[in-house]
Design goal:
- Helix content is 39%, strand content 5%.
- With 85 residues, the chain is mostly helical.
- Helix 1 packs across helix 2.
């Protein structure tokens, strides 16, 4: 996993993305299936995969998905207090 260089051209597998975001690889896969993280695409708009057939993700997209997920987790909701008798 390369954290240096251009994050728009750096590609990661789910495992590498998980290491960078400090989450389990299944979390990265869930982001993909829930639409929070798009698989990288080539110039012909075909999904990119590595030589093992694993999907690849752009580092910048992984970082955005991770930040958005953590921001959603930090949200607080205004729940009215129940009246006590």
């Amino acid at each position: 996993m390369d954290l240096s260089g251009d994050l728009t051209s750096t590609l990661w597998t789910a495992q590498e993305a998980a290491e960078a975001a400090d989450v389990d690889p299944n979390v990265v896969r869930n982001w993909k299936y829930r639409g929070h993280l798009k698989q990288a695409r080539d110039e012909h708009q075909r999904p990119m995969k590595n030589h093992l057939g694993q999907p690849l993700f752009r580092a910048v997209d992984v970082i955005r998905a991770e930040r958005a997920t953590r921001a959603r987790a930090r949200r607080t909701y205004n729940v009215p207090a129940t009246a006590t008798a």
